[in-house]
């Protein structure tokens, strides 16, 4: 009967009786001193060199490898070690090992907590601010209670800006901003990008309908899904683009062709109409 030995790290041979000298091939570069250890080697690098084999010049902390506020220091073998803040771990303090939101740090009951590496962020309701949404301010529009830097979003695939916008739009729904749009009255709470600027009712303090001379009150039919030709002018804000929706589809005979030749630099007169989007302005 034959047999086979599985050797421990650092040993070789049929009976695992030969000790491997990991320093035999002088792996340490740039004058580094090699020391054999179990299963490998360590290099003691000269001043100004670092890396497993002293292959890098300079100092290990020069590249600022420690993330999220970690403190970098040079180890005895010339490499770097990151001292991580509480709640963080990993070679470069890149692992968020604690969910700070579990302790419910946001004081206001309607505030939302967002976990970030070694810290937390509170999204405050209107009239509240501060890191923990604990400061009452009647002028505050709500939002993040502290500066946003290097935060992880809670929703996969969403950036923090997208998450912020989504939360703001939720506030728009609670305030009923959609129903207030186009009522010829500026609702300051809804005069934000997320709330579609109150349907242009505020228009930077200027009445957006001041130059509209239509015989009907265009602001009452603005963006109602029906085309009102009297309001379909620049002065009347083109009826909220309601008339664009009434355009017929591009002629089926030309549709596929027009899509394929859209904005290709050559004028195709059969596509040069509003229904076919003016051939991508090729005929201009």
TrEMBL record:
Assign the protein's first listed, main location to one coarse class: membrane
Q: Does the keyword Signal apply?
A: yes
UniProt name for this protein: Notch
Entry GO MF terms: calcium ion binding
Q: Which organism is it from?
A: Neptis antilope
Q: Name a single GO biological process.
A: Notch signaling pathway
- Output the SUPFAM superfamilies linked to this UniProt entry: Growth factor receptor domain (SSF57184), Notch domain (SSF90193)
Q: How does it sit in the membrane?
A: Single-pass type I membrane protein
What are the residue boundaries of the EGF-like domain, all occurrences included?
Answer: 1-17, 19-55, 57-94, 97-134
**What InterPro entries does its record include?**
EGF, EGF-like_Ca-bd_dom, EGF-type_Asp/Asn_hydroxyl_site, Growth_fac_rcpt_cys_sf, Notch-like_dom_sf, Notch/Slit_guidance, Notch_dom
